[in-house]
Amino acid sequence: MKQDxxxxxxxxxxxxxxxxxxIYQPTAFWAAASEVIAQDxxxxxxxxxxxxxxxxxxxxxxYSGSASGISHEQAKxxxxxxxxxxxxxxxxxxxxxxxxxxxxxALADYRVLLASENNxxxxxxxxxxxxxxxxxxxxxxxxxxxxxxxxxxxxxxxSFLKQHLAGEVPTTVLEIGGGFGTLGEIWSxxxxxxxxxxxxxxxxxxxxxxxxxxxxxxxxxxxxxxxFAASQSIHIDQLKPAxxxxxxxxEQLVGEVDLFVNFISFQEMEPxxxxxxxxxxxxxxxxxxLMRNMREGKQxxxxxxxxxxxxxxxxxxxQMLPNYRLVASNxxxxxxxxxxxxxxxxxxxxxx
Length: 352
What we know:
The protein is an alpha/beta fold. It has one domain (6-63, 102-351): 3-Layer(aba) Sandwich (Rossmann fold). It has helices at residues 6-17, 31-44, 53-58, 72-85, 90-100, 103-116, 149-162, 182-188, 205-217, 271-283, 314-319, and strands spanning 140-142, 145-147, 172-176, 196-201, 222-224, 234-235, 242-246, 253-254, 259-263, 288-294, 324-330, 336-337, 343-351. Strands 3, 4, 5, 7, 9, 10, 11, 12 and 13 form a nine-stranded mixed sheet that branches. Strands 1-2 form a two-stranded antiparallel sheet. A hairpin with a 2-residue loop joins β1 and β2 (145-147). α4 packs antiparallel against α5. It is globular. The relative contact order is 0.13.
């Protein structure tokens, strides 16, 4: 089935965004980027969104480039110089390419997944293979399956979750700030019966996730934000398997969820915004909460440098969730430590 025009939906969502309460609009970290990304998408289209520089800086994570501490330009320059100085060191050339391409870091995460995943229990994770929709510039293949940093982030996090489920199988998953929809794609391949995935996000990323999941799953499998009036209740049990809704529509959700996920995006928001979202997570009685966020909090906004006004740290999340207890936290092997000493930590909480 042909999709609704994604650019039309983007324009509609961006216009509605401007009419919403401040708490559902982009915070300091995203304010300027949202407009630029929307303009890029209108100009370039969504078919190759995973190649757009601004998208790769904000919601299409890479192993290579600035995320590794070495920009693509620096890597290209150093590689050219090294190959010029050592033209016959072919194995060294391969090692350098392996590192600069991000494949070495991706392989480390893939090995964690293989070592930790028990595919005899649900959700099954080892059978996943990522779509090439959006034409990614960085995607890796092992055993005929495709992975990006986005999918490996989620897969290792879900493997961490499975170690504590004791056979329980979450069916309905709610995510806030789902990037381009990777978790929905994973959940569709996880072997869970009657699964539902709901992504709540601000435009324009909400529109990108809508486009991606409709492309991957089929339009008849995805509920879009434009299917509901502003005063209409959105009953979770009546949604299609995947849903991509706008930030303000979380207030309209009615029902319960089994698992709430937030990977990275909370650290890019201000505390009052996160507190409001977590209020609704509590209202929807999520049984489990899985988060990945920077232990030290995001960098503070300074003139000429993007950041947040008030960083949120690990204890802040725990204090915002009085009806939940911390079950486990993890940095190694499921989390990530940056070269400059910041800690991307996984937190797992369970409803009391």
